[in-house]
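sry for the spam today, last one i promise. struct tokens for design, 405 residues
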């Protein structure tokens, strides 16, 4: 695949979701990513390799199976790491040392190597050895305490937000380390964790506490500080509207001919509307219930007021703008045919957005012989490694999650 990262070789040791999210950024923009897994079958936290989750995480990669628990497997990894640019892993700290794939070992072998790690809680500290997964972090970070309707108890976000956020942050860190290496010739260890990523993603909600000691609470579908901004009722469903501030508030009322609302003595300032958000929403619903979702969107959009429907996932991907953007593109699979997967959201003017992925996610070990040959192994050496069970080709093995985060 042509892209700004096509000169880079990446060794992908990641499992589950957070690490693969970081590696996917590199693979989608041209890096030669080699996914390394153990030869033996085991379970995966993200389902079958041929299922939607793993296909979306591991497209545009090659696959090598390698037994890192065996000294011969570690030796092979060290040899290919000498020629690699980036290693990405999300093992627990004790596991990476046991397998001989820790930063200290690999940086001695290859000082230019960028070594990137994701963990649940960080590489050190009182929680460093704890296993961490998305939902645990959603709860510990405070996110669940501000998600959901007031009084209904904590609520998780409907996607693996801490996994994917940590993956995106690690991908950014890798790119920063690449820029530093261009300037100095030196690699380094890039780290983040699910907990750090999720606290960062709290953004202004977190800053309300760190700066002023405020503890945000649940606001349901309404914005915690901007009023009115949230979900309103139409005659046939629901709509999201952002009518905060004097200009948008007036436009909203005029677009819906809500003179009584515009002239209501209790709602004549931003501060008044914020203090009366409950009664205000009830009065706004009385107005919006007179229109369908489509009518509301047409009227409010024409008036310059941000408004939109509340789609299910299918409706979202079938939306005309999403179709225009081409967010789902095919990935060729040798047995399953073309699989439509979700493309990278990034656009670069120097590189056309790909209309197809190079390949779907490979079965474990599919490219073992080819990858080893690329790193200088002879057919005889590859055959010997296969005979001793150090590598295998194309078996439907699964990565174990027992050593994750």
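last one done:
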């Amino acid at each position: 695949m042509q892209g700004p990262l096509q000169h880079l070789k990446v060794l992908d040791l990641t499992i589950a979701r957070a690490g693969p999210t970081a590696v996917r950024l590199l693979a989608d923009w041209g890096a030669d990513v080699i996914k390394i897994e153990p030869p033996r079958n085991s379970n995966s936290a993200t389902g079958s390799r041929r299922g939607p989750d793993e296909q979306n995480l591991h497209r545009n990669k090659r696959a090598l199976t390698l037994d890192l628990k065996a000294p011969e497997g570690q030796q092979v990894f060290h040899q290919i790491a000498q020629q690699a640019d980036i290693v990405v892993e999300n093992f627990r700290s004790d596991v990476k040392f046991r397998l001989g794939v820790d930063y200290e070992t690999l940086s001695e072998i290859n000082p230019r190597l960028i070594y990137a790690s994701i963990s649940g809680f960080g590489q050190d500290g009182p929680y460093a050895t704890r296993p961490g997964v998305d939902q645990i972090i959603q709860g510990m970070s405070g996110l669940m305490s501000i998600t959901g309707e007031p009084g209904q108890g904590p609520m998780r976000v409907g996607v693996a937000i801490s996994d994917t956020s940590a993956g995106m942050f690690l991908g950014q860190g890798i790119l920063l380390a690449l820029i530093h290496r261009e300037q100095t010739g030196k690699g380094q260890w890039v780290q983040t964790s699910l907990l750090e990523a999720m606290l960062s993603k709290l953004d202004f909600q977190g800053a309300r506490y760190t700066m002023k000691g405020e503890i945000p609470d649940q606001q349901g579908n309404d914005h915690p500080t901007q009023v009115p901004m949230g979900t309103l009722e139409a005659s046939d469903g629901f709509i999201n509207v952002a009518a905060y501030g004097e200009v948008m508030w007036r436009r909203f009322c005029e677009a819906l001919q809500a003179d009584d609302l515009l002239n209501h003595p209790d709602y004549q300032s931003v501060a008044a509307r914020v203090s009366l958000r409950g009664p205000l929403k009830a009065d706004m619903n009385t107005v919006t219930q007179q229109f369908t979702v489509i009518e509301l969107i047409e009227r409010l959009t024409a008036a310059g007021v941000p408004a939109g429907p509340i789609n299910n996932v299918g409706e979202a991907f079938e939306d005309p703008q999403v179709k225009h953007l081409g967010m789902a593109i095919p990935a060729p699979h040798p047995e399953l045919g073309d699989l439509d997967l979700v493309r990278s959201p990034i656009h670069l003017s120097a590189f056309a957005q790909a209309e197809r992925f190079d390949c779907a996610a490979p079965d474990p070990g599919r490219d073992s012989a080819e990858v080893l040959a690329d790193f200088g192994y002879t057919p005889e050496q590859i055959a010997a490694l296969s005979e001793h069970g150090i590598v295998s080709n194309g078996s439907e093995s699964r990565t174990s999650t027992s050593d994750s985060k």
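The chain is about 40% helix and 15% strand. ok im logging off now
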